[in-house]
Amino acid sequence: MKVSIALECESSPEWVAAVLENFNAFLQDHANCERKASAMAMSFVAKFPDRVEIIPELIETAIEELEHFQSVYLIMQQRGVVLPAQMGKDHYVQQLVDHCRSGREERFLDRLLLASIVECRGAERFRLVYENLKDKHLREFYHQLWASEAKHGNIFVHMALNYFDRNSVYSRLEELNRVEAGVIESLPIRPALH
């Protein structure tokens, strides 16, 4: 059942063109994003060990993201692309996190909802990538990733609904979704997931 909401804005054709023009750079960034996504899921476990209802799903998500990293890394190896020396800051995620509230419960909710939005954006962009790639193997890979990321968008909202009432979750999700649209539209176009 879909519990996430639709993104406020779509990625631009210019973004797709930038990815296709420098796909190796996109792969490097994509690999970094998968590593960060795995670490993010596990950071919820570390920061909120009392939230036992969601820990199994967080662990599962972290493993799945790590498997995605492994798959991207394999493609990179086949193409002779190395991991970047440094992961670098993700300005997209940082700007989103800057909008999180500071109270423990409020921040917990905001981080879960931002995780949902980031996964939904990833799904949208993976769909655009697979729709525009010519290479059959890469098209299939990104089609599978699209399905996985779309599912993750729902998972984090489900987690939030364990602890917060539906109205609070969805009103805040809509607010953060509008914030995300402003952030994604303000970022420079580059061959990166965000």
What structural class is derived from the secondary structure elements? mainly alpha
Alpha carbon gap, first and last residue: 26 Å
Give me the number of helical elements: 7
Which outline best applies? globular
The overall strand count is 0
Percent helix: over 70%
Determine and state the CATH class. Mainly Alpha
> Main β-sheet, in a few words?
none
| Superfamily (CATH H level) name | Ferritin, core subunit, four-helix bundle
Strand content: under 5%
Mean pLDDT: 95
Predict the CATH topology: Ferritin
Rg value:
16 Å
CATH architecture: Up-down Bundle
Question: How many domains comprise the coordinates?
Answer: 1
What is the H-and-E element order? HHHHHHH
**Which residues sit in consecutive blocks of at least 5 with pLDDT less than 50?**
none
Write up this protein:
With 194 residues, the chain is an all-alpha fold. The chain has one domain: Up-down Bundle (Ferritin). It has 7 helices and no strands. Helix 2 runs antiparallel to helix 3, helix 5 packs antiparallel against helix 6 and helix 5 packs across helix 7. It is globular, with a radius of gyration of 16 Å. The two termini are 26 Å apart. The model has no long low-confidence stretch (mean pLDDT 95).
